[in-house]
């Protein structure tokens, strides 16, 4: 049985949030595409960064996450794929979004397929994905899907905006990266046991 877990991180500050809505739609698109790759089960785990804002500040100050934040971080770093969506503030990702990825252990996202998204009030900030989010994920050594999805306020509910098509395309790209990635499996210590004769020689000092 082929199962996948996708962590959908959204750093919207309000509820309801267009940032969370975009993350949900990207998750749905990736799920549909993974089923097309033969997945039996796809679990999308939403992570609302705003719910952990105080814990993130404490983590930055102390160097240690509390138990709830640790569980979230382990979910994100242990997922088969990641969706990361931020609102755009001052032409870049939000401080809350950056803080979340600042506390992830170095190397924990290496090779993890990532789909990037962003929301904003105007299409003028759409390049933030390419000049802010992609360099961040490149530094973390994640594998980023080619298509990033930016949704301006006017894109929602407009068929002419092409938002639905961009979401479907990006979800398909993430699914292809996830399905093509070899799963990280811990070695089974009993799969190739040490021969009994070797153990006897070691014990006798031979």
Overview of this protein structure:
The chain is 42% helix and 20% strand. The chain is an alpha/beta fold. It has one domain: Flavodoxin domain (Rossmann fold), CATH 3.40.50. Helix 2 crosses helix 4.
Give a quick summary of the entry:
By secondary structure, the chain is α/β, with parallel strands linked by helices.
Written as H for each helix and E for each strand, in order along the chain, the element string is: EHEHHEEHEHEEHH
Name the average pLDDT. Answer: 90
Could you say how many structural domains there are in total?
A: 1
CATH level-3 fold name? Rossmann fold
CATH superfamily: Flavodoxin domain
* Uncertain regions spanning at least 5 consecutive residues: 184-190
Q: Percent of residues in beta strands?
A: 15-25%
Query: Quick one: overall form?
Result: globular
How helix-rich are the residues, as a percent range?
40-55%
Name of the CATH class? Alpha Beta
Structure annotation, total helices = 7
- Going by helix content, strand content and strand pairing, the class is alpha/beta
Output the radius of gyration. 20 Å
Major sheet characteristics: 7 strands, mixed
Distance between the termini: 46 Å
Total beta strand runs: 7
- Can you name the CATH architecture? 3-Layer(aba) Sandwich
Protein name: FMN reductase
InterPro entries: CE1759_FMN_reduct (IPR023932), Flavoprotein-like_sf (IPR029039), FMN_Rdtase-like_dom (IPR005025), NAD(P)H-dep_FMN_reductase (IPR051814)
Keywords: Flavoprotein, FMN, Oxidoreductase
Pfam family, one: FMN_red
């Amino acid at each position: 049985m082929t199962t996948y877990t996708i962590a959908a991180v959204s750093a919207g500050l309000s509820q309801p949030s267009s940032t969370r809505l975009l993350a949900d739609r990207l998750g749905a698109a990736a799920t549909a595409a993974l089923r097309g790759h033969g997945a039996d089960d796809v679990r999308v785990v939403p992570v609302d960064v705003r719910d952990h804002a105080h814990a993130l500040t404490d983590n930055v100050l102390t160097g240690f996450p509390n138990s709830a934040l640790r569980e979230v971080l382990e979910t994100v770093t242990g997922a088969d794929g990641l969706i990361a969506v931020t609102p755009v503030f001052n032409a870049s990702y939000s401080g809350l979004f950056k803080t979340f990825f600042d506390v992830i252990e170095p190397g924990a996202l290496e090779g993890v397929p990532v789909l990037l998204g962003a929301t904003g009030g105007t299409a003028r900030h759409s390049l933030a994905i390419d000049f802010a989010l992609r360099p961040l994920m490149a530094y973390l050594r994640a594998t980023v899907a080619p298509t990033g999805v930016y949704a301006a306020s006017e894109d929602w509910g407009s068929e002419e905006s092409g938002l639905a098509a961009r979401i479907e395309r990006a979800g398909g790209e993430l699914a292809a990266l996830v399905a093509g990635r070899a799963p990280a499996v811990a070695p089974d210590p009993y799969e190739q046991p040490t021969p009994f004769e070797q153990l006897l020689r070691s014990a006798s000092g031979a």
